[in-house]
Structure formats: structure tokens, C-alpha cells
Amino acid sequence: MENSNDTIKIISSALIGVAIGGALGILFAPYKGKKTRKKILNKGEDLAEIIKDQFSELMEQVSANQKEITENLQK
């Protein structure tokens, strides 16, 4: 169970870091608006893929923990 909490903390920290980094990137962007928007879109797609992968990993861990708990309760 503790591993799930650690994973959630890691995912939350990553999302906060990405949000802060994105905001700072927009503020200090050396590119024109259209190019900046395209870069943001690409980064957003990358972030969505990372979140999807981490969520899948988290669900696998939750499933494994659930199975272990169920087995322990049946003993």
C-alpha cells in the first residue's frame, strides 16, 4: 500500500513540475506565438503519454496489492 502512495506523490510532483515549467516557458519563450503554441501542444501530448503510462503502472500496482490482500484475508 505504501508503494501506491509513493507513486501518487511522484505523479503529483511531476505534474506540478510540468505545470510550473510550462508556465515559465511561456513567459520567457523566445519564439513567436504560433511556434510557441505548437511547442506547447507537442509538450502537452508528451505529458499526456507520460501520465497514461504512469497511471497504467499505478493500476497494475493497485491490482497486485488487491490480489495480495485478498489472498491474505482468505488464509
Describe the structure.
With 75 residues, the chain is an all-alpha fold. The chain has one domain (2-74). 91% of the residues lie in helices and 0% in strands. It contains two helices and no strands. α1 runs antiparallel to α2 (33-74). The longest helix is centred in the C-terminal third of the chain and has 42 residues, at 33-74. The protein is elongated and about 65 Å long. It starts with a helix and ends with a helix. The model has no long low-confidence stretch (mean pLDDT 83).
List the SSEs and their pairings.
Elements: H1 2-27, H2 33-74
Which structural traits does this protein have?
mainly alpha, 2 helices, 75 residues, elongated
